[in-house]
């Protein structure tokens, strides 16, 4: 067990997937012999492997379990070490209040232990968190403190990291004359140290410097120099940042087609690792691109997605939590920290997102993680991991990896949505296979975005049918009202799609949507090409709601109607309007009460 844990640590920098595998073996042995410190260490190592592979949600779950073990054992040093790691993961996920909480807790321990090196690293990390919460003054002060500590310690890596971070913050505060010397100092030190990862980070910071100054030609040139180096690192998180930055620059230069390609690539990379901040930033940039081209319909869809991701990151509850954490610990000890800023303007978001600081200037900036040294097997394992999370809910994927199987469960209340395209067979005879698949992919990709926005689980596609459900695997995810909202948004997308296709003189899809609520059994079927699925009469009835509906409408059952009829907007007005259809014959079900639903005019 100890040997496996030691090997997991040894592999953690260059082969994080091996770290996960070794940690999992160590955990099984620790559990078999009842060794709780061994269990805690293995859980930490598994979390570290997932964090290095940018699977942040999974890493966070393992870190939480490890922390619980160390807490029960009373090992404060291990708890503080984990809090640093948990702070890094939370920052990578865009959860700034949680990052602040964990880093402050760790800082208290290391200050009491007089560990100057770790205190300097934590102050540098906290500076980034404070800046991303719009606390610029606090961020600059802390980063200067960190830099002074690194210089006193003659810590070359720390000096390079802190210089780069400070330059980034000053850039975002539009103090350009002050920032560039720090950025150039950091780049020179990274090159002298022979650290490719650090060199990429610093080059990205300098490219961002020129972008913020409005020198788009120089910024584009610098980013183009970065592109092959970032690809060598093999980090989707950083590729997302680079492509989105380049897309914004190309938009500013009015090179719109190139801009769209870069932005769509950036969003795809961000989605592959669940990086909500970059998803928010990418859709904001795509909205600006659509507006620049006068494509109002596409712009509206991207703006909705931007708002959804923004609100999930910067909601009011998080702001209150951040304020509480800041008030618990005052670095300056001169005045209480001001309340964290509320919703920021889109232009401000653009300034924040443009910086590579969000993804590049992290605590592990110069950790020597040479991603390009991973061999083919390691990369294939990473692809398998991403594929697993792409086809299974995260909770089910975790259970499958931990146990080798996932139990089927009965869920009392699930709301199932079915869509189906009218005249699909006829259209398939007029379109080439490539055109047909491209059009289907465009629609289903939009539906994927919509279901993600409302917290609904996509189940599968069957030909031209799309199936999703709210209330599983966790009943708290995707309420019946969320499912109805998603269905209405899907129909709106189809209306926009139809208008665009008509204007181009091309054939188009029209769609029926049906929804029903009730109990289901959910689980995994098969051992090859397995998939997460749901079964029961609720599923069959939802399908009948679709087939008994009409094109352009959302048809719901009486059961769903009872759950959403009193749904209201945040200001207390009704969210939906209903058109009773009376009893309608449903194949295999007899006559059933059905309703067409639409948004209330004031909703």
SSE topology sketch:
Elements: H1 2-11, H2 16-33, H3 36-52, H4 56-73, H5 76-93, H6 96-112, H7 116-132, H8 136-153, H9 156-172, H10 176-193, H11 196-213, H12 216-233, H13 236-252, H14 256-273, H15 276-292, H16 296-313, H17 316-328, H18 346-354, H19 376-391, H20 394-403, E1 409-422, H21 424-428, H22 433-453, E2 457-462, E3 465-470, H23 480-503, E4 510-525, E5 531-535, H24 537-547, E6 554-557, H25 558-564, E7 576-586, E8 590-599
Parallel strand pairs: 4-6
Antiparallel strand pairs: 1-3, 1-4, 2-3, 4-5, 6-8, 7-8
Helix pairs in contact: 1-2, 1-3, 2-3, 3-4, 4-5, 5-6, 6-7, 6-17, 7-8, 7-9, 8-9, 9-10, 9-11, 10-11, 11-12, 12-13, 13-14, 13-15, 14-15, 15-16, 15-18, 22-23
Helix tally?
25
Looking at the overall shape, the CATH architecture of the domain at 409-599 is 2-Layer Sandwich
Largest sheet: 8 strands, mixed
Pick out the low-confidence regions.
Answer: 315-384
What is the helix content? 55-70%
* Subunit arrangement of the protein: single chain
Structural class call reads alpha+beta
State the shape: globular
Per DSSP, what share of the residues sits in E-state strands of 2 or more residues?
5-15%
Radius of gyration: 26 Å
Find the CATH topology of the domain at 409-599.
Answer: Alpha-Beta Plaits
């Amino acid at each position: 067990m100890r040997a496996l844990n030691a090997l997991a640590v040894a592999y953690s920098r260059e082969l994080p997937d091996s770290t996960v595998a070794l940690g999992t073996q160590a955990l099984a042995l620790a559990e078999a012999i009842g060794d709780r410190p061994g269990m805690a260490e293995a859980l930490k190592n598994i979390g570290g492997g997932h964090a290095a592979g940018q699977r942040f949600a999974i890493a966070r779950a393992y870190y939480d379990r490890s922390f619980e073990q160390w807490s029960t054992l009373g090992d404060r040093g291990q708890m503080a070490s984990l809090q640093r790691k948990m702070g890094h993961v939370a920052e990578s996920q865009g959860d700034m209040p949680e990052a602040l909480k964990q880093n402050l807790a760790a800082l208290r321990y290391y200050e009491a232990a007089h560990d100057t090196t770790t205190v300097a690293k934590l102050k540098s990390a906290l500076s980034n968190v404070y800046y991303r919460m719009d606390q610029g003054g606090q961020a600059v002060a802390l980063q200067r403190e960190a830099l002074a500590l690194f210089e006193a310690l003659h810590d070359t890596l720390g000096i390079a990291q802190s210089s780069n971070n400070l330059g980034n913050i000053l850039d975002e505060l539009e103090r350009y004359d002050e920032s560039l010397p720090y950025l150039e100092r950091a780049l020179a030190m990274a090159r002298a140290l022979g650290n490719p990862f650090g060199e990429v980070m610093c080059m990205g910071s300098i490219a961002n410097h020129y972008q913020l100054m409005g020198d788009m030609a120089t910024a584009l040139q610098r980013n183009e120099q970065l592109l092959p180096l970032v690809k060598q690192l093999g980090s989707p998180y950083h590729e997302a940042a680079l492509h989105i930055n380049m897309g914004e620059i190309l938009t500013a230069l009015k090179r719109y087609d190139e801009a769209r390609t870069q932005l769509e690539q950036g969003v795809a990379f961000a989605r592959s690792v669940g990086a909500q901040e970059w998803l928010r930033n990418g859709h904001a940039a795509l909205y600006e691109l659509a507006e620049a081209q006068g494509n109002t319909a596409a712009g509206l869809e991207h703006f909705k997605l931007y708002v959804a991701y923004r609100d999930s990151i910067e909601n009011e509850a998080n702001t209150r939590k951040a304020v509480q954490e800041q008030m618990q610990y005052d670095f300056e000890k001169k005045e209480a920290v001001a309340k964290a800023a509320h919703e920021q303007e889109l232009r401000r978001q653009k300034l924040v997102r443009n910086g590579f600081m969000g993804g590049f200037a992290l605590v592990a900036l110069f950790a020597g993680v040479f991603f390009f040294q991973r061999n083919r097997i390691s990369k294939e394992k990473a692809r398998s991991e991403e594929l697993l999370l792409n086809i299974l809910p995260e909770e089910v994927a975790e259970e499958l990896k931990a146990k080798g199987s996932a139990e089927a469960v009965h869920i009392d209340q699930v709301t199932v949505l079915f869509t189906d395209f009218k005249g699909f067979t006829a259209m398939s005879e007029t379109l080439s296979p490539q055109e047909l698949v491209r059009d289907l992919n465009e629609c289903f990709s939009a539906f994927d975005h919509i279901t993600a926005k409302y917290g609904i689980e996509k189940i599968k596609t069957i030909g031209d049918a799309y199936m999703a459900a709210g209330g599983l695997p966790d009943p708290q995810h995707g309420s019946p009202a969320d499912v109805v909202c998603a269905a209405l948004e899907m129909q709106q997308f189809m209306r926009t799609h139809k208008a665009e296709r008509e204007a181009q003189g091309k054939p188009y899809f029209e769609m029926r949507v049906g929804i029903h609520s009730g109990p289901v059994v959910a689980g995994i079927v098969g051992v090859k090409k397995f998939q997460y699925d749901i079964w029961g009469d609720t599923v069959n009835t939802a399908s009948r709601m679709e087939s008994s509906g009409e094109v352009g409408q959302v048809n719901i059952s009486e059961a769903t109607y009872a759950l959403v009829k009193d749904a209201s907007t945040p200001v207390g007005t009704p969210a939906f309007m209903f058109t009773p259809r009376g009893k309608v014959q449903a194949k295999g079900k007899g006559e059933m009460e059905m309703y067409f639903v639409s948004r209330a005019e004031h909703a």
